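Look over both lines:
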Amino acid sequence: MSTYLNPMKPNQGGGFQDCPALLVEYLQYSLTIRGLSPRTVNGYYIDLRNFFKFLVLHRGMVPADTDLTDIDIRQVDLSFIAQINKAEVYDYLFYVTQERSNSANTRARKLSSLRGFFRYLTSKTGKLEQNPVDDVEMPQRKKRLPKYLSLEESIELLNNIQSDFPERDFCIITLLLNCGMRLTELVGINVADIKDDTIRVVGKGNKERFIYLNDACQKAVEQLLLANEALPNKKDTALFISKRTGGRLSPRRVQQIVEGALQSAGLGNKGYSVHKLRHTAATLLYQHGNVDLLSLKEILGHADVSTTEIYTHLESVHLKQAADASPLAHFTATPPQRDDCDDEE
C-alpha cells in the first residue's frame, strides 16, 4: 500500500490500515481537530510507523534479521507504548543516523513527530502519565539560507512562458513570485475567493488569510478569468483548471508547469522549484520592497516571526558579494620594504 496521501484528498485509498489503533486515533485527530494538512500528517504517519517497527525489532519481538518493512505493528497497544523510555528514543535516533544516514534536519523532524504523538497521549487524552521525549534535545540543525531567483531571473521567467494555456501559466508564476503562496494554497484557490484586490487562501492548519494583489497580479487574474470562461468544458469553481478536463489542477501539475517555465527561461538546472518561488517572493519583498519583518510574516502566513527571520540573514550575503565586487578584491602586491636606517636624532 502506498505511504503517500493525496494532499487534496486525505485518506483516499484506505488511510492508515497498517497502524495500531492509538496511532490511527492520533493521525485522525491531527487531520480533523488540529486541521493539519494531509501532507504533514502523512509525514507523521511514516515517521511514527517506522519508530514502532524499530521498537518491535529492538525488543526482540521478531527475529533479528527481519526487514523493517516486513514488521506488523497493528498489535502495538497502550501497554507497549507505556514502556517506551528515553533510552529507546536515543537508540532509535542512533539507528536512523547510522543505518539510514538521516541528517540532523531529518532526525529533528522525526523527533518532532514523536513529541506530538506523546503530547497527545499525555496532555490531550491522559492515557499516559510520562512523556519519554519531553526533555530529549533536538539535534543541532544546520542553518541554510533559502535558495531564490534574482530579480533579473524572475523577470526572465515571466518573459518566457511557453504554454498552450498561457493566461493560466503566466498567472501561476505571477502569483507565486509576487505573493509567496504555498503550493497547496495556490491550488486551493476558488474564483469566489477573489474579492477586488484580495485573494483568500487557506494555509497550514486550515488558517485563512487574505493576500493583497498588486497591479500585475490583478491583471493576470483578470486575463485568466476571461480565458477560463471561454473554455467549453469548464466544470470546476477553481481558479486554476485544466484546459483538457476543465477540472482543478493538481499540485503535481502545477509543479510540472513551473518546471517547464523554468526550462524555457534557461533556469532549469539551478535547483529552482515552486517552493523556491515562494522564497523568491519573500526575498524580493524584503530586499527591494523594504517590507518589514512583521508584514512579511503575515504575507507568508508564518505562525511565528522566527520562521521569517531567515530572510534577514540574506543581507550579510549581499554585503559579502559587494565586498567581493571591488575592483581591488583580487589585487596582491609585494609588501613595502621597511626602512632600516637609524632614526635621525
About this structure: The chain is about 50% helix and 5% strand. The radius of gyration is 26 Å. The longest helix spans residues 38-58. Confidence is low (pLDDT under 50) at residues 1-14.
